[in-house]
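Notes from hallway chat w/ T.B., transcribed later so I don't forget. T.B. wanted the structure written out for a chain they're using in a teaching module, and asked if we could keep both sequence and structure tokens in one place. Agreed to drop them here.
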Amino acid sequence: MIKAEWFYWLVGAVFIVMALQMFRDTTNPKRYGTGAFWGLLGICFVYSTWVVNKQAPAQPLGVAVLVIAALAGFGLTGRGTAEGTAPEQREASAARYGNKLFIPALCIPVVAVLCSVLVKRWHINGMPLLEKDSETLLGLGIGSLVALVVGMILLRERRVSVPLHAGRSMLESMGWALVLPQMLAILGAIFATAGVGDQIGKITTHLLPDGQKYTAVAVYCIGMALFTVIMGNAFAAFPVMTAAVGWPVLIEQAHANPAVVLAVGMLAGFCGTLLTPMAANFNLVPAALLELKDTYGPIKAQAPTAVAMLACSIAIMSVFAF
């Protein structure tokens, strides 16, 4: 049986190998901080297995997360010059292969769908081939390996070191922003566990007079957008604002339609996603990958759409929720 844990180990091993490359890169003035950042992240992927199985203490993971945050927060990570092809060679290769370059990328979703729909039914000696309930995750991992092999065959590249150097270059381009969504998702869970939503709910219930359902709609939608701006993730803001306003005020007190409130509330949260650098995987990472001169250019371009969508969300919930 193929276990999901194996792919976490593989991801961790790739991070560790790239960290060793970063330590040796003398073109990066912050190579030690950069290597430590990605090396610790890779070690966490591997070490977590024993923590989950209760075979090792969890405290080292917490210390590693704090060190990772400190390395990024104090600006101790940087970017070097990875070995690889020159820009002119890449442009010539792109012109030569054209749309065929998308074939490796398309392999990932195709293999993921096949694994989650077809391969999940396969058994060997009575055991499922893929670990139960992890078929989609395993499909993404297997699809990534298939895409790597297809890409190397397509480009007639025999050296494994070439995609490793290219991956390392991309990793350094994205930098700490790559792990920000995961960190913020953890923060959202901490907020929910600490009861932040309940406290905001008490304040909101105290401030809003009974019967002010449309004001509550505006508070809920704008609150979802603002919390998403702060936390960078609408899924992290959702439990906080829904526990504070959505469920107790709109659904229980004003008897609003739960499906409309929850669905439109999430839409309002995504308006905040368009407005914040904290949503790194949507705003900062693409800007870094495309090497845009203005890192905040995507946010500036998305701002008018976000404001208009937020106004529409408030109007839609006001009309259809009651």
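Follow-up for T.B.: The first strand starts at residue 123 and ends at 124. Might be a good example for the class.
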